[in-house]
Amino acid sequence: MQNDKIAELLERIRNHNPLVHSMTNVVVTNFTANGLLALGASPVMAYAKQEVADMARIAGAVVLNIGTLNETEVEAMLLAGQAANSAGVPLLFDPVGAGATPYRTNTARKIVRDTRVSILRGNAAEVANVVGQEWAIKGVDAGEGDGDIVDLAKKAAVALKTVVVITGETDIISDGKVTYAVKNGNALLTKVTGTGCLVTAVIGAFAAVESNLLIASIAALVSYGIAAETAARLKGAEGPGSFQIEFLNQLARLDGKQIRELGLFERI
Amino acid sequence: MQNDKIAELLERIRNHNPLVHSMTNVVVTNFTANGLLALGASPVMAYAKQEVADMARIAGAVVLNIGTLNETEVEAMLLAGQAANSAGVPLLFDPVGAGATPYRTNTARKIVRDTRVSILRGNAAEVANVVGQEWAIKGVDAGEGDGDIVDLAKKAAVALKTVVVITGETDIISDGKVTYAVKNGNALLTKVTGTGCLVTAVIGAFAAVESNLLIASIAALVSYGIAAETAARLKGAEGPGSFQIEFLNQLARLDGKQIRELGLFERI
Amino acid sequence: MQNDKIAELLERIRNHNPLVHSMTNVVVTNFTANGLLALGASPVMAYAKQEVADMARIAGAVVLNIGTLNETEVEAMLLAGQAANSAGVPLLFDPVGAGATPYRTNTARKIVRDTRVSILRGNAAEVANVVGQEWAIKGVDAGEGDGDIVDLAKKAAVALKTVVVITGETDIISDGKVTYAVKNGNALLTKVTGTGCLVTAVIGAFAAVESNLLIASIAALVSYGIAAETAARLKGAEGPGSFQIEFLNQLARLDGKQIRELGLFERI
Questions:
Q1: In whole angstroms, what is the distance from residue C8 CA to residue B106 CA?
Q2: How far is CA B235 from the centre of its chain?
Q3: Which InterPro entries has this protein been placed in (chains A, B, C) (predicted)?
Q4: Partners of chain B (3+ Cβ pairs below 8 A)
Q5: Pairwise CA distance, residues A210 & A83, whole Å
Q6: Helix axes B195-207, B3-16, angle to 10 degrees
Q7: How far apart, in whole angstroms, are the C-alpha atoms of residue A139 and residue A125?
């Protein structure tokens, strides 16, 4: 795994504009769609039980995000997830706020039980709660807490038979056997709502063009992190509003040269 | 039809701040409201079946957009559309993603059957699917495809007894007898989510102050296109984030002088 | 009450990052979350009846906003409001568009009847309609109208046994006995959607760290107003897009020095 590979996958996204079907929360829909467009992917959002399976089958990746879940949407998420599974479409799951309320925790566990999630992406507390480990959480945004995040990622990957991505100051990616750490990123991402949700969708875009989901995840996190670093360098001092807009610019402007110079990840 | 007329209609919007009732998708609500406010119109969004008819009756225009449709909202859209019809309020319809799934296609056809749509706005694939012509589509964003767009616009206008607006590199507006092409606009609009949805709402704002809906549509597309051109010239090189924000600025700053100098449309 | 107190409360928000549970409308979710994050609070949005009470109990403040209300959400809002009441969590209510349709007016009155609202924030027309006074309204945004706003605030506070905040060119805050006017703010706020909704959430953030709700409200309005003034001074001339982004920057950059120099309020 080299930065060259990441640059190649980014080119593939820009050449093929993979359709990423996101069933995400009402807070981040616009930012998610604009982030995917900036990167070069094609966002689509569809929530009705009458159409989610049809949309999932024609997508390059399906993303389920329970940030503002309700009964009707969860039912549709299961249909979309199962349709993605049947069609061999990568299924990503972002268990926003798992652990914050029993309903979220239980729903997250139902989703990993009733569908085959290809990639689970959350913060440490969310991932811990999905697999039934204790972890402190406040609302839906916190979740660093204590504990060994690398160990958690590995165990969760084994338990769920999936690739697990735990984002934080360092991002950990594991399929249970092989584990990587990605160092790219910037703390300003935590001052903009939906940057966690968007990264899951961006991993989806990479998973749509690369069947090795460990590689797809690393490539997405490195790309995303470099765009954030560049945006922070150019506009971070102005504040989170300017950073958010520049981050969209940088997702669009990211190129192979930047990736080769700045990509920072290692097998651990 | 002259650019002077367009400038005059823009002034009317700014003097009267027409209320545009948008029942739109969850991805573009914020951008639609901010775009309408920037232009000088008053956005309102209401979705509950208990109030949509009341809101539609006091609006200057009603916009239905099925981008993230569900059963409950479609039911409310029909109520709003019928109330708009009864009250003589222009009814706009944006059949987002018609053709992408059977549910979308069928719902779009139900809306044009059970209400009297005043203006239908979509890309070529969406319009084709509403009227039952074959057209390639991917997700909800593509839809240039092949085929004679001018012919499609005319036929759809005749079939639906409505003004049809097909947006793309060149925008085509037809009532079935008279057809116009608008050349204003910029490709960066395709890199920002919701620019198609917003243009439908902007046509609604013009339709609220001009009863000739062909003229209202042309005026809206020229105004919108010039704002996009100016934004692209000033900030396009920075990326889609900066362009999006500058586009809102330019919707607010657009004036008669720009329209007279830059408006580019012709009868075809 | 001095500007020093406001500066101290802002510091408290930044040190404690209070969780503000917003059940708000689909137009403003993203802007509300980003505004709260910029200020230093932790936003959470949850709408499902299965979890709103759990979320409300762990929140520092709960905000109900009926901008795009529907039956299901109103039911959940009542559950969240009652849970906040039982747990002693401040409950804020933003009756968006009360008076625009009977459904909104009736729902707003139901909410103040079936929960104990700690702080009601609206424009004059909305507040008047909640308490049953006549007031002109157009859609959900207007509502200056005529009438004595100070008198309305006092009467509404007495009638509802709550703190009432009426925002406008001058903001009026009253608990029925003590009444303040806040002069900070900028007219550009009216050109960005959701600035009224966000200010209610920001009052919630201050209410989470200050039990005197009159003081919390004044502190929030002064802080918000200064951020708007600074943003308008720096970027207002560019247009509402740039202003919106700079406003988020300024919510993050606001400091005690600015508050002490620019805070402008008085008891009336």
A1: 58
A2: 24
A3: Hyethyz_kinase, Ribokinase-like
A4: A, C
A5: 20
A6: 90
A7: 11
SS3 A62: strand
Measured CA to CA, the distance from residue B106 to residue A54 in angstroms comes to: 14
Taking the CA atoms of residue A247, residue A249, residue A254 and residue A258 in that order, the dihedral angle to the nearest 10 degrees is: -70
Among B residues 135-154, those touching chain A with beta carbons less than 8 Å apart? 138-142
Mean pLDDT, chain A, rounded, equals: 95
- B177 close contact with A: CB closer than 8 A: no
Given a contact cutoff of 8 angstroms between Cβ atoms, the answer to whether A37 and A14 are in contact is: no
- Specify the pairing of strand A171-174 against strand A179-182: antiparallel
Q: Are A37 and A43 in contact (CB under 8 A)?
A: yes
Report the amino acid identity of residue B248. Answer: L
Nearest-Cα residue of chain C relative to residue A25: C45
Q: Contact at 8 Å (CB) between B83 and A33?
A: no
- Residue A252 near chain B (CB below 8 Å): yes
| Span C71-83, average pLDDT | 98
Residue type, B96: V
Nearest to C19 among A30, A69, A139 (CB): A139
- The pLDDT of B72-100, averaged and rounded, is 98
DSSP helix/strand/coil, B232: helix
B45 has binding-site annotation: yes
User: Which chains border A (3 or more CB–CB pairs < 8 Å)?
Assistant: B, C
- The beta-carbon neighbor of A34 closest among B25, B142, B240 is B240
Q: What pLDDT digit, counting tens, does each position of C161-175 carry?
A: 999 999 999 999 999
Residues 6+ apart with CB under 8 A from A88: none
Please, which residues bridge with residue C89 across strands?
A: none
DSSP A170: S
pTM: 0.96
Distance CA(C75)–CA(B71), nearest Å, equals 19
Task: For residue A117, give every residue at least 6 positions away whose Cβ sits within 8 Å of its Cβ, in sequence order, or none.
Answer: A81, A91, A92, A93, A111, A160, A162
Q: Which of B22, B25, B39, B45 to mutate to test the interface with C (most CBs of C within 10 A)?
A: B45
Q: B67: closest CA among C139, A205, A63, A30?
A: A30
Cα(C67)–Cα(C69) distance, rounded to whole angstroms?
6
- Chain A nearest-CA distance from C181, in A, is 29
**Residue B267: burial class (beta carbons within 10 Å; 0-12, 13-18, 19+):** exposed
Residue of B nearest to A46 (CA): B68
The DSSP 8-state label assigned to residue A118 in this structure reads S
Question: What would the pLDDT profile of C105-116 be if each residue is shown by its tens digit?
Answer: 999 999 999 999
Tokens of C167: 């925002």
Torsion of CA C73, C75, C80, C81, to 10 degrees: 110
Per-residue pLDDT, C142: 45
Beta-bridge mates of residue B182: B171, B265
The closest of C67, C62, C82 to C25, measured between CA atoms, is: C67
Distance CA C247, CA C226 (A): 10
